[in-house]
Amino acid sequence: MLTFKERTDSWNAMMLSFGKEAAKHAKQKELGFADGLENFGTPILMTYLPLTLLVLAVSGKLETIYLVAVLVSLAATTLGIFIVSALFTLMAFAVARFLGGKAKLGRLYYMVSLAAAPTFVFTIVINVVVLLIKSLLEALSFPLAATGLLQLAGDAVAVSVTLYGFYLLTLSIDALYKFGRSKSVATWLAPTIVLVATGALLFMTVLLDLLKFLIKTL
């Protein structure tokens, strides 16, 4: 198991060395599923919880009802990340096996987490910083156009970080399986399409059920 410093140092190295850190971790066969869980769980406790509490404090909503809502949101977010990451890795593992990959499932889960964790941290920090600056601008009565441009810039940065995360994921899978870039992209692209399509289908189903309810009510 990695120490907290070793874990965060590996995240920084992944982001700043354009994924070269992945090659080193791919050789550490003792790192597996448990380490992957820690990689996914640590950013939530390290960034999501304290930054959410900071936002509540700045907005003057540090009250019991909001704190309970934060804890419920934290639990739901944690569970959701673990479920989605597990499903993603299982599907990616199946694709990798089909393409001739031999690494174990736990090792793949760890390498996925190595790319995802720093991306997750950066995205949370960006969103919270934008939210705090927007609150400040609104308090100072800045025009809505200014806050809109700030939100647009924040979204652009968050999307860029997410795309960079997929690049890191490609490098991590390639380092583990020695696939080459095309097979590595295929390994994560297939489960990503399935998960996005499933999410869109669920959203449309809920939306249609809501519309049917409203029509009957009216």
- Domains, number: 1
| Share of β-strand residues | under 5%
| Contiguous helical run count | 7
Termini gap: 58 Å
Which range best describes the helical content: under 10%, 10-25%, 25-40%, 40-55%, 55-70% or over 70%?
over 70%
Beta-strand segment tally: 0
Q: Rough shape? A: globular
Largest sheet: none
Helix-strand string: HHHHHHH
Q: Structural class, judged by helices and strands?
A: mainly alpha
For the residues shown, what is the average pLDDT?
Answer: 85
Notes on the structure:
- This protein has 218 residues and is mostly helical.
- The chain has one domain (4-217).
- It contains seven helices and no strands.
- It has helices at 4-16, 21-26, 33-58, 64-98, 105-139, 144-177, 181-217.
- Helix 1 packs across helix 5 (105-139), helix 5 (105-139) runs antiparallel to helix 6 (144-177) and helix 6 (144-177) crosses helix 7.
- The mean pLDDT is 85.
Keyphrases for this structure?
218 residues; 0% strand
Topology, element by element:
Layout: H1 4-16, H2 21-26, H3 33-58, H4 64-98, H5 105-139, H6 144-177, H7 181-217
Helix pairs in contact: 1-5, 3-4, 3-5, 4-5, 4-7, 5-6, 6-7
Summarize the entry for a quick read.
The chain has one domain.
